[in-house]
Design brief:
This protein has about 400 residues and is α/β, with parallel strands linked by helices. It is built from 14 helices and 14 strands. It has 2 domains: about 200 residues, Rossmann fold; about 170 residues, Glycogen Phosphorylase B (Rossmann fold, 3-Layer(aba) Sandwich), CATH 3.40.50.
Length: about 400
């Protein structure tokens, strides 16, 4: 008797993001989840100085386009950088039209990157727009009232047009979904939610010994360095607390348009021996640096934009198992219980200093918060969310894969 096996053709998926792939955990975890479930993935991203034009990382084919990430303070240069990447991505996707991408997943910012898929969409590709951050609110906060309001409406118009064009839209948590449906007229019927939780394949409890047991207290901040994250206040607070606790150290990892100001502030406050700016390091090294720390900082200045952020660094601290000091906003209040995190008031130096002092002076409280991370990780984890993501891909492709 001849047994016929049903052969299912592996689907090709495209991924487009104005980012450096090896340093972007969000794009990486989406791509690798697709690979684990039998898809072929082409990821079109920014070039990295030490990387070849194309390479394969954990099964994902990476296309480093000839465009670098702009990290300065010139908004005009940001626009030029976005447009350069747009045209390069459009050209690359069109060149690969023969791959018949079933789905192309496009990450903002900017939102209008979805239109790099125009030719592919005409030939049947489905398009997902993933809204990491709301551009209208983010840029409104950067400018004075008149320019900010005008820019808000321009960016809102391009966001709405981008969402209308896309077949499906991703929002990154429940308050984000509710806000966009209510205030940006986003269609709830074409939108799904994939919370920005840590990739548990990379971020998980490690065995490093906390430095506090050895007479030091190490605080870590990693990720984007920009004015909206309020690091100037953090430096002032660290300086003040260090007067009573000379073993305190702050380690900062990352890059952004606020690096120059950060380095200037460190020098001006005479903090070179207390605060160490390490620059940006490889994503795979971050979990180890977190595990060596006693406390994670998730700091920002409250605005319409930051009030919608569920910081990935917070989820990564939880996943590795260290306590976090942060500011409450809508998504944090939605996903976390009050006793699972330590809080200070946004842009309040006295509040930040007081809460940091309390944590340093109270090892039992640090231990209690550390134990809470285990409970958080059972509830908020990427393993559950990747199933929802793959289910949405299957709906678009019409092909089921086995779990």
């Amino acid at each position: 008797m001849i047994i016929h096996k049903k052969v299912i053709k592996k689907e090709n998926i495209g991924m487009v993001a104005y980012t450096e792939y090896t340093r972007d955990p969000r794009v990486r975890r989406y791509s690798e989840a697709l690979i684990r479930h039998g898809y072929h993935v082409d990821c079109f991203v920014l070039k990295e100085s030490t990387k070849p034009v194309t390479e394969i990382i954990n099964g994902v084919k990476i296309h480093h386009l000839n465009s670098s990430q702009y990290r300065g303070v010139s908004n005009f240069s940001y626009i030029i950088s976005y447009l350069r990447f747009f045209f390069l991505a459009f050209k690359a996707l069109t060149k690969n039209i023969s791959k018949n991408y079933s789905v192309i997943h496009v990450h903002n910012m900017p939102d209008f990157l979805v239109f790099t898929t125009l030719i592919n969409k005409l030939f049947g590709s489905k398009v997902i727009l993933d809204i990491h951050d709301n551009m209208p609110e983010l840029y409104k906060a950067k400018f004075d009232s008149k320019i900010g309001v005008l820019l808000y409406h321009i960016l809102l118009a391009q966001e709405r047009l981008s969402c209308f064009y896309a077949d499906r839209v991703v929002t990154v948590h429940v308050p984000h979904f509710e806000y966009n449906v209510k205030n940006h007229n986003l269609s709830p019927n074409k939108t799904f939610i994939i919370p920005n939780f840590a990739d548990t394949n990379l971020f998980h409890p490690l065995t490093e010994t906390n430095s506090v047991k050895n007479g030091a207290f190490n605080v870590i901040y990693h990720g984007t360095i920009a004015e909206r994250f309020g690091l100037n206040l953090v430096l002032k607070g660290i300086k003040k607390v260090h007067e009573d606790f000379p073993f305190l150290r702050l380690h900062i990892y990352g890059k952004g348009d606020g690096v120059v100001n950060l380095e200037t502030d460190i020098q001006a406050m005479d903090l070179e021996n207390i605060v160490v700016y390490h620059g940006q390091i490889e994503l795979d090294l971050i979990p180890g640096k977190i595990a060596e720390s006693d406390l994670g900082l998730v700091t920002y200045i409250q605005s319409d934009a930051t009030d919608l952020m569920l910081p990935l660094k917070l989820m990564e601290y939880m996943a590795v198992g260290i306590p976090a000091l942060t500011v409450k906003n809508k998504p944090i209040k939605y996903y976390f219980k009050t006793d699972e995190l330590a809080y200070y008031e946004s842009n309040n130096l006295e509040s930040f200093t007081r809460e940091l002092l309390n944590l340093i002076k109270s090892p039992p409280e640090l231990s209690r918060l550390q134990k809470k991370t285990e409970i958080v990780n059972q509830r908020l984890n990427w393993e559950n969310e990747q199933k929802n993501y793959i289910n949405e891909i299957q709906k678009l492709t019409g092909i089921q894969t086995l779990w």
